[in-house]
From TrEMBL:
CDD domains given in the database record: NAT_SF (cd04301)
Keywords annotated in UniProt: Acyltransferase, Transferase
UniProt domain N-acetyltransferase: residue ranges: 139-268
EC number: 2.3.1.-
Record GO terms (molecular function): acyltransferase activity, transferring groups other than amino-acyl groups
Organism: Oenococcus oeni (Leuconostoc oenos)
High-level lineage: Bacteria, Bacillati, Bacillota, Bacilli, Lactobacillales
InterPro entries: Acyl_CoA_acyltransferase, GNAT_dom
Protein name as annotated: Acetyltransferase
């Protein structure tokens, strides 16, 4: 798609996403970032008369994942049309549809419930400076690439805790933090920079090294790096299933920004 058309779509999507009833966490609040995301070869824009949505498709190593931005609908749209519309653009089956949105979108929630989707509550926290516990962890920061050996070690650690391989993305606006104890990779964090916001995307600590202050040491390093990059707003996402993490964030003085719903739906 031509750059001019991408910019037009980015402006439209960013504007629609400002409405709390339309809000989707996958969409950046910066038009430039939305343009870059839409330019990805794995992204599909679906623009119909009564609905606009975007699909970001990728393999997480176990299943084919389809992140759904939106959908942004008008009052005439019939939600019974949504699944056939999405399926007509999916590249591989079976696929896992994932939504990350404001629970105020009752129509979307009702439709997902009809499809027997699995729901979970998510909390968006705003990070703040804090005093980390003393730790012997050595932290490397990568902003361009990492060597293959470290990449393999990172993926092995990541996939013990999370699905997917998007942790592989390393660039200037997508820094990667690797934590070592006795030259063994024991933890990592991945972050993202936009024009006005920094995000902590992933943070993982090997089970053998937990309860040693490593997580807070990594978070402090991420906060310092993003703040030094002129980001005053730095956020992270916590699933309500991760109660211990939520208690830690509250103890550290992080502030709740919003609570959202995530939903997963398997389609064949």
């Amino acid at each position: 798609m031509k750059e001019k058309n991408l910019l037009q779509y980015a402006k439209k999507i960013e504007k629609l996403n400002r409405n709390p009833f339309n809000y989707c966490e996958y969409v950046s609040d910066q038009v430039e970032d939305v343009v870059n995301d839409l330019a990805d070869s794995d992204v599909t824009i679906i623009d119909e008369t009564d609905v606009l949505l975007v699909l970001d498709q990728y393999s997480d190593g176990k299943s084919w994942v389809v992140e759904v931005w939106g959908p942004y609908t008008n009052d005439q749209f019939q939600f019974k049309q949504l699944l056939p519309l999405i399926k007509s653009h999916i590249k591989h089956f079976p696929a896992k549809l994932v939504f990350f949105y404001n629970g105020k979108n009752i129509k979307l929630t009702d439709w997902l419930e009809e499809q027997d989707a699995l729901f979970s509550q998510q909390t968006i926290w705003q990070m703040c400076p804090f005093q980390a516990m003393n730790s012997n962890i050595r932290i490397e920061i990568h902003t361009f690439s990492i060597e293959n050996k470290k990449r393999r070690e990172l993926l092995a650690l990541h996939q013990r805790m999370f699905s997917g391989n998007k942790i592989n993305i390393v660039r200037k606006n997508h820094p990667l933090f690797l934590g070592y104890l006795n030259e063994q990779l024991c933890a990592y964090a991945s972050a993202q920079l936009s024009q006005k916001e920094g995000r902590l995307l992933y943070l993982g600590v090997d089970e053998k090294y937990r309860q040693q202050g490593i997580a807070t040491a990594l978070m402090a390093q991420v906060w310092n790096f993003l703040h030094d990059s002129c980001q005053d707003k730095i956020t992270l996402v916590q699933s309500d299933k991760a109660q211990a993490a939520g208690k830690l964030y509250k103890k550290l003085g992080f502030k709740t920004i919003r609570r959202l719903l995530s939903a997963q739906l398997i389609v064949n």
